[in-house]
Structure formats: C-alpha cells, structure tokens
Amino acid sequence: MSTTSPPTPLATRVAALTRNGLVQGVLLTAAVTWLVPTLGLLVSSLRPKGVGTATGWWTALGSPSQLTLQNYTRLLEGGDVTKALWNTVLIAVPATMATVVLAAMAGYAFAWLDFPGRDWIFLVVVGLLVVPVQIGLIPVAKLMGALGLFGTIPGVVLFHVGYGLPFAVFLMRSHFLEIPEEILEAARVDGCAERRIFTRLALPLAAPALASLAIFQFLWVWNDMLVALIFAGNDSQPLTVLLQSQMRQFGSNLDVLAPGAFLSLMIPVIVFLCFQRFFVQGAMAGSVK
After folding, report:
1. Do 117 and 20 reside in the same domain of the chain?
2. Which of the 8 DSSP states describes residue 131?
3. CB 164 within 8 A of CB 217
4. Which of 103, 153, 96, 68 is closest to 268 using CA atoms?
5. CA–CA dist 94, 233 (Å, integer)
6. Which of 35, 42, 221, 228 has fewest C-beta within 10 Å?
7. Alpha carbon separation from 115 to 121, 141, 168, 217 (Å, rounded)
8. Within-domain flag for 258
9. What is the pTM of this model?
10. pLDDT tens digits, 119-178
11. pLDDT tens digits, one per residue of 37-68
12. Distances from the Cα of 275 to the Cαs of 100, 178, 270, in angstroms?
C-alpha cells in the first residue's frame, strides 16, 4: 500500500532555491549593491574637509593616503556632537529598558494571570497598535507642557515608552503563551509565588523574545527624529536632530555630517550584532513545533 508524502512547505522550497549558484550570485550582487552607500559614507567620513565636496568619494579608493581620522577627532572634541550623542544614549537606553520591563510584566499578566477585565484591557492594548504616532503629538505635547516635561529627556523617553508598549505587550504575551501550562502549574504546586515563577521561570524562557523586543525598541528610538524634533529642547536634542540641523549647510558641513551619520549608523549595528543570536531565536520561536 503506497502512501503519498506530504507536500513540501513553501518556506522549505524557497530555502532550497537559495542553494542554486545563480540565485546565490544574484543575492550576493544585491548585498554588495546595498552596501555601496554605507561604504561611500565611511569613505566620505574619512576624507579631509574641502576634498569631499570637490570630488566623489570613490576617488579616494585610488589614493587611500588622503583618508584620515581628523574628522572624527574634531567631531568628538566638539561639544555639540558629543552632547547630542550622549543625549541619544540617555534617551534610547532608558526607553528600551523601561519598555522591555513593563512589557514583560504586562505580557505575563495578560497571558497567565486571571483578573477582572483582562480580555477587555488587552483588546484596548491591541487597538492602540493602529493609532499613528502623529495623532498623539499635539495632545501629548500639551500634557508634557503641563507637567513641565516638554523639551526634556524624560519627556522624550516617556513618549517612546508609551507608544512602544502596545506592540511590546502584544509580542510578550504571545511568547509567554507558548510556555507549557504544565510547567507553571508544577511550580505553583511546589509552592512558588507568582513573582518567583515570573522571574525564575518565565523570564529565562522568554529571553530570546526579550532580546528581540530590546533590539526593535532600541533601533526605533535611536533612529527616531520626528518625536525628538518636537519634544526635545536645545539641550536635550539627540544626534538625529543635530544632523538634520546641519543639513541646511550640507556643502560646508560634510566633514561633520559624514562621520556623525556613520557613528549614528554603526552603534545600532553593533548592538544588533551583539544580540543577533537571541534575535534569530526570538524571530524563529513558534515556527517549528
């Protein structure tokens, strides 16, 4: 009696297709093409002032002796850029940590705790996912002004946390629901309090999801310009706002824009590479049963 083999999943067929030499060549060409602007930015950031606007960046590849670190030295010695970079760190790190911690606690509560109105509150959280950031700019700006937080770093952090929580809570609840209920019940039978179950059992199992959420939130906050442009003051503006203000004099400020933009680009890349293993695990969670 013959049996028919189950159909091959689409993802498996696509993965098998990428093993073809021609496809690999096309993907490699696309990757190199995508990296050309980054290479151009790096080379431009290493060219002396005045040379960058006179000739194209690719001319430096023929005479690498003109490349220097003077732009980075002047950039980091300048008070404005260093302060803007530090402001970016002070905004991105607390906004990421607060979002991850609050989302983990709320996600676990929505997944495994029974309290009045749990499902209705979660529906409200899911509904907030479709609310654009632009809708809340004016009302939140008025609220920040009334609280004395407008134009300050805590005000920018609170805005990012508030708008990052709906997606973060939804993501963490989905991952906590994948924990087998038997494991949690066994811990409760052994006398573990709910707080201990959350910190010692649920959080370690959700480490890939937490890392993925931290990367998403950090990249969003680090690269944000709209929120910072509105809510940050002159003393609290991040690097994105400073670079945007320098664009008004692009020709004469290329020695500031290029290294500043490359620094703004590389720090998130470094963060992503450090957490890449956890990010892949979190992205693949639930794809294989």
Report:
1. no
2. S
3. yes
4. 96
5. 18
6. 35
7. 10, 33, 20, 28
8. yes
9. 0.79
10. 899 999 888 888 888 888 888 888 888 988 888 999 999 999 999 999 999 999 988 988
11. 888 888 887 887 767 666 777 777 777 777 87
12. 15, 22, 9
Cα gap 20→63, rounded to integer Å: 38
What stretches of the chain show up as alpha helix (H) in DSSP?
Answer: 10-17, 21-45, 51-54, 70-77, 79-112, 118-127, 137-147, 153-176, 181-189, 194-197, 203-205, 207-223, 226-231, 239-246, 254-274, 276-284
Residues 170, 125 contacting (CB under 8 angstroms): yes
The answer to whether residue 83 is domain-embedded is yes
Higher per-residue confidence, 19 vs 38: 38
What range does the domain containing 271 cover? 73-284
Q: What is the CATH number of the domain that holds 210?
A: 1.10.3720.10
User: What Cα–Cα distance (Å) separates residue 204 from each residue in 91, 102, 111, 200, 219?
Assistant: 26, 16, 16, 7, 23
What b/e string do you get for 155-185 counting C-beta neighbours within 10 Å, with b at 16 or more? bbbbbbbebbbbbbbbbbbebbeebeeeebe
- Evaluate whether residue 263 is within a structural domain: yes
Structural tokens at position 269: 């890349």
Q: Tell me the torsion sign for CA atoms 133, 138, 143, 147.
A: positive
